[in-house]
Design goal:
The chain is of the alpha/beta class. The chain has a single domain, classed as Metallo-beta-lactamase, Chain A, CATH 3.60.15. 24% of the residues lie in helices and 25% in strands. The strands form 2 sheets. Strands 1-2-3-4-5-6 form a 6-stranded mixed β-sheet, covered by helices on one side. Helix 3 packs across helix 5. It is globular, with a radius of gyration of 17 Å. The termini are far apart. 44% of the residues are buried. The model has no long low-confidence stretch (mean pLDDT 91).
């Protein structure tokens, strides 16, 4: 029997700069995964793991983050967890490298990985029963920028219009960032109202993301330092 969205433990973590991370756990085995832990989330996540009596099996970094320092390595060192990333991730400390369509299980709870590049070439979204952890592939009312190292607007278009476009409308979308205090959205609403999902075609989308979108964004500070640390 599969699990629906009420059958597993799910918790969101937020830091002041808008980064979002997640705890997912199977209540029967108490096996847990921590997804996209920003460095400041390490202690809160471990506290939650302790309070719920969980065993962290996996730490998942959805991609090589360029705008903040990942806490994945610290969590790996403080638990028995294996670090999970896409096969193209440059980090040397990855234990399990996933590809599009791969699954890992927390007891009876499946996590399916979808390769959703564009913001970064190694970006994966994590599909759970009733939810998708979209990282920077799809944000609430927007999408991840494509002008940073390893970004690609064409691939982002295909991620949004084909991969996400084919997923069920009732999926809850939990992104990797939100700067307005929102927790999640619904995929069907994103398809209808998200400006980044409503361009007439690929050429218009790519032109906007490459030429106009960067002018609307704030500079990424400590870019080189974050990439160097997260790629190690």
């Amino acid at each position: 029997m599969g699990k629906d969205e009420q059958d597993y433990l799910f918790e969101q973590f937020r830091v002041e700069r808008g980064c979002l991370g997640y705890l997912v756990a199977d209540p029967e085995t108490r096996w847990a995964a921590l997804v996209d832990p920003e460095l400041e989330m390490v202690e809160p996540m471990l506290n939650s793991v302790f309070e719920h009596g969980l065993k962290v099996i996996y730490v998942v970094d959805t991609h090589t983050h360029a705008d903040h320092h990942s806490g994945a390595r610290e969590l790996k060192s403080k638990t028995i967890a294996k670090l999970v990333m896409h096969r193209e991730a440059p980090a040397s400390c990855v234990d399990i490298r996933v590809e599009d369509g791969d699954r890992l299980h927390l007891g009876g709870l499946p996590m399916k990985f979808l390769h959703t590049p564009g913001h970064a070439k190694d970006l994966v979204s994590v599909l759970l029963p009733g939810r998708i952890l979209s990282a920077d592939a799809l944000l609430i009312g927007s999408c991840g920028r494509t002008d940073l190292p390893n970004g690609n607007a064409v691939r982002e278009y295909h991620t949004l219009y084909y991969t996400y476009g084919s997923l069920p409308d009732d999926l809850l979308v939990f992104p990797g960032h939100d700067y307005k205090g929102r927790e999640h959205s619904v995929l069907g609403e994103e398809k209808e109202t998200n400006p980044k999902m409503n361009f007439e075609g690929e050429e218009e989308f790519v032109r906007y993301m490459e030429r106009e979108n960067p002018e609307t964004l704030t500079p990424v500070y400590h870019l080189a330092d974050a990439l160097k640390a997260n790629m190690a």
